[in-house]
């Protein structure tokens, strides 16, 4: 039975790919050849696209069932479709790796993706490019499945690039506005910096292991030199930092909010931005074999990112930008977990984050829908009176991300904090501070949007059932997902046991303290988060501590520490001149050398061609002259 189910793995990427192709090339023929594109009902387009993603989710569940029927260490099945690149010693197949890590990823990618598709059916109502939007969504899901299911680095990179291209299409979807097109370009260019690191890592990996397969890399990690492995990990870290918006490549994600809200939820909450986390967890055996300071680099990059983004979120006035900086911060938590030797905690938080952040983004879409497109939280207030369903759903996401028990975010966040405490006490204090700031800025957001004095002139309206239904599903998941890995006993560590075969030989540090210390750390986390939320309540509801409000909403934080501005200034100034010199060097020296060789070869060929007339008498003459010349030469030497 297991083999029969895993044999259907190729249906996973095929379903959204077929959806994309049908939407782009053959939609009208599928339904009615007499209809033009404009006459095809919107919902028919949306439900077709959603249906293909739901189909992919069904096949993801089948892969999960197949692995459950296998013993723990047998839960890694490779299914090869065909040989892709058989060149010398390099052999790369189009093949998929079905193991606990890849199946975990595709379950929430397709599951959450299906809910977001259903939401978009109604949210994008009336958009003139409705069909194009859903074709991009289907193509994105296809690329993401390829990325996480591939059994080798090169095929993963193909999906990685596909995800990047789709993000550009979706972020700049409303490209008629200059700022939207600019946001898409910034995301595309910033990710190319990270992709350069990924490409170099592929070359070094093949040189070191003679293979690009994930399993070959895992098995060979311990036999490779620490210096080579460390270089590969740092290059992959650069690629991961680009996709997962870590310092200094985090600047693209806040601007990516220019895309439609379903895009924000799908790409920047649940799927694309977690690709970097997935990549580093997948190469966990390389982390184990690298120098000791390499995981520390990952941990500190994540920690700085978590703090900088959380403090930036405190001052934002755009509801989606608050959530964007929140996403960057939460991704920082995941990177910290990886660097601290807690990859299970990173995946656990990735899953819970997918649920509550998608809920928050879609809830924000419901809010802006009620406000006729308004996104400034200073122009909201008191919406709980009008949004009777959106409000409690959004509050579930707020409690989950703020780490309030028993919501899912509490369990995954505290597992990361425990792993960091086990590794570095100073880093633990800083990360606990970032967790407290999270509770603060999310409470500020909730109070400004749903409570207090209304700051609008029109009457907001609640969203329809089509928009609210996916929110109910995500809210339920945000509440109960914590049961995946409860710390009370080993039997309750379901996710840890499930992922164990995929992380065997990886960088995993087991806790050096018992349950008593974990209880203390959990209580301390609740106290810090509670105090931060209480402070936000006093400032934004009771109108106290005005001096503190001025500090947290300072322009320095509002401008996100001026990092984006500094990078823009560099790229437009000294950086631009430096890049131009590099381009000139490439044109004059590199291209000049190549073109010069080609040109001189062509000229030499022209000279030689003079002697290649094709006439036998001419060749006989040259042979005779050559023979005479040789005879003269030898006669002269004989004298």
Please specify the SSE layout and strand pairing.
Layout lengths: L1 H5 L4 H21 L10 H27 L8 E11 L2 E9 L1 H24 L6 H20 L3 H19 L6 H32 L4 H7 L5 H18 L8 H4 L5 H10 L4 H8 L1 H6 L3 H21 L5 H21 L3 H28 L19 H12 L6 H16 L1 H26 L14 H16 L13 H6 L15 H26 L5 H7 L2 H4 L4 H10 L1 H36 L6 H23 L1
Antiparallel strand pairs: 1-2
Helix pairs in contact: 2-3, 2-5, 3-4, 3-5, 4-5, 4-11, 4-16, 4-20, 5-6, 6-7, 7-9, 9-12, 11-16, 14-15, 14-19, 15-16, 15-18, 15-19, 16-17, 16-18, 16-20, 17-19, 17-20, 18-19, 19-22, 25-26
Question: Could you describe the 3D structure shown?
Answer:
The chain has helices spanning 2-6, 11-31, 42-68, 100-123, 130-149, 153-171, 178-209, 214-220, 226-243, 252-255, 261-270, 275-282, 284-289, 293-313, 319-339, 343-370, 390-401, 408-423, 425-450, 465-480, 494-499, 515-540, 546-552, 555-558, 563-572, 574-609, 616-638, and strands at 77-87, 90-98. It is mainly α and 639 residues long. Among the domains are: 292-562, no CATH class; 574-638, no CATH class. Helix 15 packs antiparallel against helix 16 (343-370), helix 15 runs antiparallel to helix 19 (425-450) and helix 25 runs parallel beside helix 26. The longest helix is centred in the C-terminal third of the chain and has 36 residues, at 574-609.
């Amino acid at each position: 039975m297991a083999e029969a189910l895993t044999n259907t793995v190729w249906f996973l990427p095929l379903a959204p790919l077929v959806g994309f192709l049908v939407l782009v090339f053959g939609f009208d023929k599928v339904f009615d050849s007499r209809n033009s594109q404009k006459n095809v009902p919107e919902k028919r387009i949306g439900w077709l696209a959603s249906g293909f993603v739901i189909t992919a989710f069904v096949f993801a569940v089948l892969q999960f069932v197949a692995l459950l029927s296998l013993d723990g260490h047998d839960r890694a099945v490779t299914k090869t479709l065909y040989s892709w690149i058989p060149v010398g010693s390099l052999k790369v197949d189009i093949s998929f790796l079905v193991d606990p890590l890849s199946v975990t990823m595709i379950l929430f990618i397709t599951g959450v993706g299906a809910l977001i598709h259903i939401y978009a059916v109604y949210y994008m109502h009336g958009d003139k490019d409705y069909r194009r939007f859903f074709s991009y969504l289907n193509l994105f899901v296809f690329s993401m499945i390829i990325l996480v299911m591939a059994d080798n680095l090169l095929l993963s990179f193909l999906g990685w690039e596909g995800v990047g291209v789709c993000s550009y299409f979706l972020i700049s979807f409303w490209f008629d506005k200059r700022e939207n097109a600019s946001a898409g370009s910034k995301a595309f260019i910033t990710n190319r910096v990270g992709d350069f690191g990924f490409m170099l890592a592929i070359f070094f990996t093949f040189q070191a292991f003679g293979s690009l397969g994930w399993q070959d890399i895992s098995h060979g990690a311990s036999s490779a030199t620490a210096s080579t492995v460390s270089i590969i990990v740092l290059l992959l870290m650069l690629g991961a930092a680009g996709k997962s918006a870590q310092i200094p490549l985090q600047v693209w994600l806040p601007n990516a909010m220019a895309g439609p809200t379903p895009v924000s939820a799908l790409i920047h909450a649940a799927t694309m931005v977690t690709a970097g986390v997935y990549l580093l967890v997948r190469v966990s055996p390389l982390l184990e074999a690298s120098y000791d300071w390499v995981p520390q680099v990952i941990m500190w990059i994540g920690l700085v990112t978590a703090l900088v983004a959380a403090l930036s979120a405190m001052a934002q006035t755009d509801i989606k930008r608050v959530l964007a900086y929140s996403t960057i911060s939460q991704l920082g938590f995941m990177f910290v977990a990886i660097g601290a030797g807690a990859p299970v905690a990173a995946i656990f938080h990735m899953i819970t984050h997918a649920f509550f952040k998608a809920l928050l983004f879609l809830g924000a879409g419901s809010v802006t829908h009620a406000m006729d497109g308004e996104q400034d939280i200073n122009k909201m207030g008191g919406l709980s009176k009008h949004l009777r369903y959106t409000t409690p759903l959004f509050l579930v996401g707020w409690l989950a991300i703020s780490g309030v028990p028993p919501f899912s975010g509490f369990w995954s966040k505290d597992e990361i904090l425990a792993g960091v405490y086990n590794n570095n006490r100073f880093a633990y204090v800083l990360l606990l501070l970032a967790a407290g700031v999270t509770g603060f800025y999310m409470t500020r957001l909730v109070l400004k949007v749903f409570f207090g004095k209304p700051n609008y002139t029109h009457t907001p309206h609640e969203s329809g059932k089509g928009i609210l239904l996916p929110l109910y599903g995500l809210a339920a998941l945000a509440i109960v997902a914590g049961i995946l890995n409860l710390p009370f006993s080993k039997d309750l560590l379901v996710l840890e046991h499930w992922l164990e075969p995929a992380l065997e030989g990886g960088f995993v540090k087991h806790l050096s303290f018992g349950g008593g210390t974990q209880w203390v750390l959990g209580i301390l986390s609740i106290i810090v988060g509670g105090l931060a939320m209480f402070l936000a309540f006093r400032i934004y509801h009771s109108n106290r501590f005005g001096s503190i409000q001025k500090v947290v909403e300072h322009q320095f934080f509002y401008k996100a520490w001026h990092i984006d501005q500094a990078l823009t200034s560099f790229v437009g100034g000294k950086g631009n001149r430096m890049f131009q010199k590099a381009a000139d060097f490439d044109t004059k020296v590199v291209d000049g050398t190549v073109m010069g060789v080609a040109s001189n070869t062509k000229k030499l060929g022209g000279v030689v061609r003079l002697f290649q007339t094709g006439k036998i008498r001419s060749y006989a003459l040259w042979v005779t002259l050559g023979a005479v010349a040789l005879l003269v030469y030898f006669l002269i030497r004989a004298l």
